[in-house]
Write a structure and sequence with these properties.
Blueprint: E1 2-3, E2 21-25, E3 29-34, E4 37-42, E5 46-50, E6 56-60, E7 70-78, E8 82-88, E9 100-102, E10 116-119, E11 126-130
Antiparallel strand pairs: 1-7, 2-5, 3-4, 3-11, 5-6, 6-10, 7-8, 8-9, 9-10
Organism: Dyella psychrodurans
InterPro entries: DUF427 (IPR007361), DUF427_sf (IPR038694)
Protein name: DUF427 domain-containing protein
Amino acid sequence: MTQAPSSTARTIKVPGPDHPITIERNSQRVVVRVAGCVVADTLNALTLKEASYAAVQYIPRQDVDMTLLERTNHATYCPYKGECAYFSVPVGGEHAANAVWTYEHPYDAVARIKDHVAFYPDRVEAIEELDH
């Protein structure tokens, strides 16, 4: 993700052989903890794999304690996924600033991640994938 430029004109790219993106249902339970608090717990995570980047777990908002999140003004743009909004997790202090991101209106190629959020692994205590 890159910092959102000030211009409203956006380049839109479609995933393909040079930049593949796959989204698959994760069969494991995914639990996210911040400062000892369970922030998310789901059996319905989606694993997004994009090009050579590490796989990312996208968790349905309904399985996230949104009361623990605080929306920020930070925003970025991905030409493959769209406009990205961020949340901090105040219980995690400054370390958890902008730790959570979401594509509220993702492009068609990644429409499945709508109403999901993802967490930066280095800004939360743990993202656990557990057998259930």
